[in-house]
Amino acid sequence: MVGLKERLLPFIAQLAERFEFRAIVPVSAAKNSNLKSLTETVAKELPLSPPLFGPEDRPHRDDKFRIAEIVREKLTIELNQEVPYGIAVEIEAMGDDEDGRRQISAVIWVDREGQKPIVIGADGSRMKRVGSAARYEINALLGVRVHLTLWVKVRENWADNAQALKMLGLE
Predict the structure, then answer these.
(1) Is 103 helix (H, G, I), strand (E, B) or coil?
(2) 139: which residues sit within 8 A by CB, 6+ positions away?
(3) Are 111 and 168 in contact (CB under 8 A)?
(4) Res 9: pLDDT
(5) Which residues on adjacent β-strands are paired with residue 147?
(6) Cα 128 from chain centroid (whole Å)
(7) Which candidate, 18, 145, 148, places its Cα nearest to that of 89?
């Protein structure tokens, strides 16, 4: 049986004959193979230029939007392809407690009732992993300790509703 690499290398050679590439770097993110070579090649091929944005420049979106996107990213990674598009995250509340911790409450909106247990996972295990990964990144973003509370709720056909999209900051 011919392996994947044995099929891929002739295909890459065919592409190299048809097109003029500056570099070809086969990688496998799943196997963590050749990623260092990829980053080195990209860095070498990029043109030199002054920074486009200064360290004081902030994204045009507020922290609530960025936090919601962090949670959504962690969900997408965790869920893989189980619920790919029917998820939105809304930050319901943000504030500081007396210990200086940032309290954040977020709702994860799904399209259908059947998606809710998929997002939550067995005994809440998936939500725990998502919450931990998101909290770690949000701590770094905000520079303070964060207590993140996640809820999963159903809003049928939210992705087809212009008002719902606007409310979620996705217009």
Answers:
(1) strand
(2) 145, 146
(3) no
(4) 84
(5) 103
(6) 16
(7) 148
Beta-carbon contacts of 87 under 8 Å, excluding residues fewer than 6 positions away, are 72, 75, 76, 79, 108, 109, 110, 115, 119
Alpha helix positions (H), the chain: 4-18, 35-45, 63-79, 115-120, 125-142, 162-167
Encode the chain (171 residues) as per-residue pLDDT tens digits: 567 778 888 888 898 899 999 888 888 877 888 888 999 999 998 888 888 888 777 667 788 989 999 999 999 888 876 665 678 899 999 998 888 889 999 999 888 888 899 889 899 899 999 999 999 999 999 999 999 999 999 887 666 665 555 565 555
φ/ψ (deg, to 5) at 109 = -90, 130
> DSSP letters along 34-51, please?
SHHHHHHHHHHHSPP---
Q: Where are the domains of the chain?
A: 4-45, 63-167
CATH homologous superfamily of 63-167 equals: K homology (KH) domain (3.30.300.20)
Taking residue 51's Cβ as centre, other Cβ atoms within 10 Å add up to: 7
CA distance 43 to 46: 5
Q: What are the two backbone dihedrals, phi and then psi, of residue 6, each rounded to the nearest 5 degrees?
A: -65, -30
